[in-house]
Amino acid sequence: MQTENLNIIEKSELQTSKLRDYATFMKFRLASLVVISAAIAFAAASKELDWVKMGWLVLGGFLVTGSSNGFNQIIERDLDKLMTRTQNRPLPQERMSVAEAMVLASVTGIAGVAILWVFMNPLSGLLGLLALLLYTVVYTPLKRVTPFAVFIGAFPGAIPPLLGCVAATEGFGSVPLIGWILFAGQFIWQFPHFWAIAWVLDDDYKKAGFKMLPSPGGRDKSSAFQVLVYTLFLYPISLMPVMFHFSGFISSLIISFCSIYFLYQAYVLYKDCTVEAARKLMFGSFFYLPAIQLAVLYG
User: Fold this and answer.
1) Whole-angstrom Cα distance, residue 64 to residue 113?
2) Is residue 150 within 8 Å of 190, Cβ to Cβ?
3) pTM of the full structure
4) CA gap 277, 200 in Å, rounded
5) What is the mean pLDDT of the chain?
6) Distances (CA, A) of 142 to 42, 136, 137
7) Dmax over Cα atoms in the chain, in whole Å?
8) pLDDT digits (tens, 9 = 90+) for 146-175
């Protein structure tokens, strides 16, 4: 009896460990954050909120994003061994085979695109597929070639709110203006966001040969200045929903407060050029995007 109990416990631990590896492989927390922006945009573009349809959007978007993250780890599995941040992932540690990873990434990607196509509309499915291909086939290989990769990666990274708005419409009709506005905001936001992360992790990225900061000098005034410029432009773009009357006065106050504080954090990075300043900007970016999008939705 005791042996049977031990076997049950061991199987349970193995299953839990496998689920944890799958969550790491698909970057569960990151995928969840990406899906939130699609869900908020879906609610903002809906005349009458359909919770069932939103559920399918969240599931489809999560599977596509998780698939993109999975293919990224398959491609970079040897590079992940070199970096402290990634060396404990399932593939570098050989807790997951490449074949298993390929099956998981392929199945989730196909299922995600199919869900978006069938339960939303064909254009939603095509946008999900486009995001997956751009991230996997174009952005991932370019990270070791040129800092321009961040610009390329900003396109699939900005698709979720556009996808959310398209999912709230019917078929191949015109994309709602709010969709393009939210796309533009998330597109520009990614530059200070990713460059702040790249500043913090620059030493680790160099081990794998990743070129993520915009200046050849890395952590220098030139990189910090570009962060500051993009953060400055983010402010008026974030106010566009107010300018086009998708949200009101309260929203403008929240957006202004968040944007000015975010800009202040970027200025501190430019002034000090320290890892600590970049870390504060990085955490500020995690707060900024959902705060702005929720302000548009409820303001």
Assistant:
1) 7
2) yes
3) 0.91
4) 9
5) 91
6) 31, 10, 9
7) 70
8) 989 999 999 999 999 999 999 998 655 678
